Amino acid sequence: MANPSVFKSFLLCYLSLLGFTLSANNHGVKFLFPTTNQILNYQDTVNVTWRSPFKNPLLYTFCYNSVNHDMIQEAIQKVAPYNGSQLIPLVWKGVSSCNFNLRPNTTAGNGADSPLFIVLPTARAVPTTVELGSPASTSGSTSTATGEGDPSTNDTPSLNTGLSSGAKAGIGVGVAVVLLAVLAGVALFLLQRRKAKKTVANPTPPPGYVEKYYGGGSGGQKYQPVDSTTGSDVQMQEMNADTLTAQPGELSAEVAHELSGSDVRREMNPGTIARNTAGGDGRGFSWDKSTTP
Q1: Are the C-beta atoms of residues 52 and 102 closer than 8 Å to each other?
Q2: Between the N and C ends of the chain, which has fewer C-beta atoms within 10 Å?
Q3: Would you place residue 190 in the very low, low, confident or very high pLDDT band (cuts 50, 70, 90)?
């Protein structure tokens, strides 16, 4: 079985991609302004700009207090369809942050939220409208001021640039499928590699190998020990136990044997004395060599 860490990594990547896909599905809504890390002031006017597929959208404004960040203000208004913008003045006291929500109806969850921005409690010396293209505002910075009646603030963008939510979801799903395929291939490779290691560790001889090289079967070679004394390649064969061998036996006493007449007679040494004894070779005498005094 494949390493469990591979499956853990696979699961984490899948969940991350799933979260990315779900977060990218904003029902086709994209806020162009406000952007992230925006800092505004009390009584500033925000030119909220968006792109959406909604024909009759509603723009919600949510603001939160500076104590426990509970929502203290909610404003609803009808805005321009599809790609549009709307001026929203920040006239609520005691708020610390706000954000906008664009949806096709009053049902929550069918739209998308803008980035949260900070609202400072002090107003600027001159009323200011903050919009797309203006620098991030702080208490010591200035931004472009426009009148509320300026028609440029209500122009509807004519082109919808950027990827739609469907395209983002498709990209997320495609990336997830590719990653799944790659991880599955890695897991299969590791599994096959582990099986290959087991096969090398315990090799199995092919059929007929034992019979051919170890004497099995009718055509096999017999065991022949090597002559260790000579070190030669000539092999000694063990004799068959069935071979008859000569067994020692006692000669019959009834058969008379005459000594050969061709024996050479030799003169005895004077120092050799024949003695008649009861022992010896069983013929009543024995030869003994004594020393002449």
Answers
A1: yes
A2: C
A3: confident
| Length of the chain measured in residues | 293
For 268, the token pair is 């005895």
Neighbours of 275 (CB within 10 A): 10
Contact (CB, 8 A) for 75 and 23: no
CB 156 within 8 A of CB 75: no
Q: What is the DSSP string of 72-129?
A: EEEEEEE--SSSEEEEEE---TTEEEEEEEEESSS-TTSSEEPPPEEEEEEEPSS--E
Question: Tell me, what's the pLDDT at 155?
Answer: 41
Element at 41 (helix H, strand E): strand 39-42
CA triplet 85, 91, 97: central angle to 5 degrees? Answer: 80
Residue with the bigger pLDDT between 210 and 142: it is 210
Confirm whether pTM is higher than 0.70: no
Burial class (CB in 10 A: 0-12, 13-18, 19+), 5: exposed
DSSP state of 226: B
- Across 50-71, b (16+ Cβ under 10 Å) vs e yields bbbbbeebbbbbbbbbeeeeee
> Can you tell me the distance from the alpha carbon of 167 to that of 162, in angstroms, rounded to the nearest whole number?
10
Q: Region of 94 please: left (phi>0), alpha (psi -120 to 50) or beta.
A: left
Owner of token pair 């942050």: 97
Helix, strand, coil percentages (3-state) for the chain, rounded to 5, are 25, 25, 55
Residue 48 to residue 123: CA distance in whole angstroms:
19
Q: What is the pLDDT of residues 259-284, one digit of tens each?
A: 555 555 555 555 554 455 445 555 55
pLDDT higher than threshold 50 for residue 192: yes
